[in-house]
Amino acid sequence: MEEISYIERGNGQNCLFLIHGFCSGPEDWIHQINFFSQYFTVLAPTLRGHDGNNVNNRPMSIEQLSNDCINIIENRKFKKIILAGHSMGTRVAIDMASKIKNLNGLILVDGSRFSNFENYFDELSAFEKSLKNSNYESILRKMFSSMFFSSKFENDKKRIVDRAINVPMDYSITLRRNTIWYDSHCVENYVKNLNTPILLLHSTKIDKENGRITINNDDDVPYIDFIKFWTDQITINKFEQTGHYITIEEPDIVNEQIIEWLEKLKLHFRQ
Length: 271
Fold this sequence. Notes:
The chain has a single domain (6-264), classed as Rossmann fold, CATH 3.40.50.1820.
C-alpha cells in the first residue's frame, strides 16, 4: 500500500476526512480545514499522483485512491468519521463509504457522473477523440478555466489551472479514462447500497462539451437526480450562480450548511 501525504489539523476521536478532486489538491478545502479543526481531527490527503511526482507503473484508479485514503485512517481508531468529497473526490468518498464501518455521514460537493453502463463506449470514444483533436494541456486549461464564473476569483483560477497542468499527463489521462469506466460500471452499485446520511452541496452541471455551467434552484441536475433516486437519507442544498469550487467561492455558507446538517443529525462534536 502506498503512503500519501496529507494535512492534519485539530484533534479528538472524531474525524472529518476531506477529499479533493481531479488534478486538484487539499488546499481547496483550506477554509473548511481551518474552521472544522475546532471540532474534529481534520485530515485532507493529496491523492496519489497529484503531488507532481512521477507515477509510472503505479496503479491509477478510483479504487486505488480510495484504498490509499483508507490506509490513512484505518489504524487511527476514530469513533466517528464524516467523509467529504469534491468533484472526482465524491467518487473516492463513495468508494470509501462502502468499506468503512464507523461512517456517520457523507458530504458530496458538486459531484458528477460522466457515463452509465449504456453510454460508456460513447463517452470513452468522445474523450479519446478530444485527445486526438487537441493538445491535452489545452483541454485541461479550458476545463479548469470553466470552473469559475466571477472575476473576483481570477487569482484562484490561475492557480488551479496551473496546478492541473502540473499533474503528470500520462497519469491524468489514465485516471480520466478510469473515472469514465468507474462511473459506468461501479458507482451506481455503491450508491444504491449506501446506508448513511448524505449532504449534497451542488453548484454546477456539465454541458455537452464537458464544461461547467451554473444552476438555479429550479433546475434539474442529473447528478442530484442520480443520488436522490437511490437514497432518501439526503439533504440537498443548491448554490445559484456559483462556480465549481464552492469551498473557495462560498466558504462561510458551505461551513454553515455543514454545521446545520451535522447538528440536525446530532453529529456535531462541539467541545
